[in-house]
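User: Run a structure prediction on this.
Assistant: Running it now.
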Amino acid sequence: MADDYGRALDAYEEAKAKSAAARRPADVRPVTEALEEGRFALAVLDARREGGPLPERRPPCFFDPRHGPSVRDVQWAPSGGSRRSVPACAADATRIDDGLDPDSRTVPIGGDRRRPYWEAGPAYGPWASGYFGGYGSMLLPGLLIGTLLGGSLDPGYDTGDFGGGFGDGGGDGDAGGGDFGGGFGDGGGFGGGFGDGGGFGGDFGG
């Protein structure tokens, strides 16, 4: 268990340092890569503590990566889009099974308006790619097909490059430290330093 805790702590420190150094949306990808790694380490740690089977290495919950690793795939369609298989945490999978909306990650899109991150535009591409890019170059484009964010991904996705730039930079003010709190708060000391806004103003976390 000490090794799992150590990996989670290392990921926390890496994400914290990279968040502090981030100055533009593209800088967020290594932050969320580290968070994804750390949350999986915490899931393994929890399983060992409880004496249960170790979790399979799976992508994070599509609806909100702060929910931690997914447990299974569910059929879901974005507003106006076609159904597709997406990874979901246990709680969101149950909600989908029951015909309810998932507990989706929302982000600010101007004024007091908030929308699910996949409807927020290209500035959130690096944030999403950090969470999902390690599971195959076509996973994220497939999950996001028919969404505003999906339309911003170009064929260079598998190299970490996103087409079309980041528009007018409007997303820069929204990429921050809110991601940190969700997955690390149960890690025995991980919660304190996260959620302080990082380098982008704090609204990325919602």
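Residues 1-55 form one domain.
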